[in-house]
Amino acid sequence: MIIELSKQKIISHTIPIGFLVIWSGGAVFAKVGLNYTTPWSFLLLRSAIALTLLLAIFLAKPKTHPSNYQLFLRLLTDSANLWQIIYAGLLMQVFYLTFYFLAIQTGLSLGIIILILGLQPLLTAILTSPTLNYRDLFLLLICFLGLVIATIGYHAINEVNTLGLLFSVLALLAITFGTIAQAKVHLPTFSSNSNTNIVILLIQTTIAVIMFSLIVLFKGFYFEVNPYSMASLIWMGAIVSVGAYLLLMVMLKISSANKVSTLFFLLPLLTMILESLVFDTSISSLSMLGVFIVCMGLLLYQIVQRKQPFERQQ
């Protein structure tokens, strides 16, 4: 019993760490990959690689075929749950990425985009937490203040335009409501969570491939093949689009959406650190102060919750 509890505790802490490393590393790989392709071509190939990998996992073990097919059919025939899966997939895998890249294309400063998306944990907590109080809100605001300080110290904030701000807000709404919707997807009781998550992600990725194919049909396709572009594409398609999304789905099933969303305060900070290592850029003392404030704010927020970091709230 003690060993089982210990394993659960290790898993509950390992999953978010893995998610943070993979997702934040994705921003660095995407930055490299976009030098050799268009955003829409990149998103299509990313989704296609993820779909191929998910299909391979789905068909990998003959013994699991009956349960996987049964699960797939069950999800397709459960109209209410299917629409919830489609809704969450469109928001997180299509609209969020689309509006994010559109915001970048307008020339809006990346620092401003990061700050707008940094409101996601706050917005999610306000919309979903049944026990949110002024103390919790204050600690989340402290985290956001730290993110502001870190971003100002690292990214230039000098290009502002209305269209870019609009796309950034739409990206914020997409990732916020997408996370909330994903947490509400019901899992069939006759199948394991891992099989269910793979089938759900398979459905959502198929939709993403269809949507980005339509965009590329009108925008055109371009991709330069070289070691850098391929490494970026493989990381984004296989590691992030499958690995990170599956980890996120697991966290949303064992914890509340507002708790999981607090991790998004750390993503731009980890990306900043990884960028400094990969591209040999310096991190100012102001940015390090911001990182410290965010970490302390999150630590205090977890302490006052008086629950395990990723124990699902009832």
Per-chain topology:
Blueprint: H1 2-33, H2 39-58, H3 65-77, H4 79-105, H5 110-117, H6 120-128, H7 134-154, H8 162-183, H9 193-219, H10 227-254, H11 257-261, H12 267-278, H13 285-305
Helix pairs in contact: 1-10, 1-12, 2-9, 2-10, 3-9, 4-8, 4-9, 5-8, 6-7, 6-8, 7-13, 9-10
Describe the fold and architecture.
This protein is mostly helical and 314 residues long. It has one domain (39-185, 196-305). It contains 13 helices and no strands. It has helices at 2-33, 39-58, 65-77, 79-105, 110-117, 120-128, 134-154, 162-183, 193-219, 227-254, 257-261, 267-278, 285-305. α2 crosses α10 (227-254), α4 packs across α9 and α7 (134-154) packs antiparallel against α13 (285-305). The chain is globular.
Morphology call: globular
Number of strands: 0
Our Rg estimate from Cα atoms comes to 20 Å
The percent range for helix content is over 70%
Mean pLDDT: 83
SS class: mainly alpha
Uncertain ranges = 1-5, 308-314
Give the ordered list of helices and strands.
HHHHHHHHHHHHH
* Beta-strand share of residues: under 5%
Query: What is the number of helices?
Result: 13
- How many domain modules? 1
Largest sheet: none
Q: How many angstroms separate the termini?
A: 23 Å
| Quaternary organization | single chain
